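Predicting holo structure, glutamic acid bound.
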Amino acid sequence: MIVRNHERIHADEENLCQKCISELEDLYSYLDLSTEELDLLDMPRRSFTVHFPVHMDSGKTKMFVGHRVQYNDARGPTKGGIRFHPELTLDDVRDLAFLMSLKCAVVNIPFGGSKGGVVVNPKELSRTELERLTRSYIRAIADYIGPSRDIPAPDVYTDEKIMAWILDEYERIKGEHVPAVVTGKPIELGGSKARSYSTSLGGILVLEEALKTKGMDKSDVNIAIQGFGNVGENAARILHERGYRVVAVSDSKGGIMNKDGLDIPNVIKHKNDSGSVIDFEGSENISNEELLTCECDILVPAALSEQLNKDNARDVKAKIVLELANAPTTIDADNVFSEKKIMLIPDILANAGGVVVSYFEWIQNLNNDYWEENRVLEKLGKTMVNSFKDVFSLCEEENCSMRKAAYQLAVKRILHAERLRGNL
Ligand code: GLU
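Done. Tokens:
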């Protein structure tokens, strides 16, 4: 994305990631980076758009648009999900690819960052159309991905079934098995144990470290979760299993609240039966907006970006915000939270558990050696707790927000790798 060149090139565009720009500009002056360093972080290494045909069930062919951005690969092959979303833009993908570069650096795994996606509402496609769309997109980008080049994974509105089609299409093109080309696969096709819930669990492990620093106990806290997709639902389930009180959850149709705590296993059943969490017996229906500002101690945005913004930030009552979604908080909201001393655990740390277990999956695929769930969980736990400690101690040392500390740690690691390569 980012900063000065971005401003130069895209000054007339409306949907810039103002937040990333401001944050990085801020960081650049804070870290006293040189012009060369700035320029190096300023733009993606590779960014492209593809147009590809898909045969629809109607018998007609429709053209679709897809993007992929490989932001920085100084620390390893680029890594990042593929999302299917009707409003996706190349700018969004670039911002998210930049965040992936920081995320992999902050948890210290040997990957760069990327992101991709197709401009489509997957809910409007049949299963066969979805499969043909996925395969056609992969044919269009196949030359640019690979286990030591760029490795896709699930993201918003994509899942393990789609990862299986990606694997199959790529292997057909290459004429050999290449399981490490994509992560988040079904276990039967080389997926890792625990990958399906690793983003949520990673966030909860980090949250538990944060609670310790605040001397808060699980019995003291009420939790509200926005989003009931893979990440939000698993977060609610795991928190409930660990004895936390989840008082509100929501999906795209609306939310529900019960101050005494929701019976999450039954909410999940209700959502599977009815298509939404709303109208759950014994709870009150609330809007998504009400969920974000409800009486709670921990707020977990686990849906789309920019949900916490200048219009609602002042009304947020939580003491801790755990960003399980990517970029759910705008810069204005960030400033309000700092002012109100709300502890914000930034996305690049809070939701990194997914890419950490993707890394474990990639290692298992390359070695053809598959691990027990406990081994994955133990390694995930260590990585998340150490990363939290790294970020938190920097935040204390520098008396800055956790977001700034996480960005600082990540940018320093990326620049160090660039320096070792002789690029600086
Ligand atoms: N899409 C996820 C993310 O934003 C996972 C990426 C991955 O596993 O490569 O972190």
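The two ends are 20 Å apart (CA to CA).
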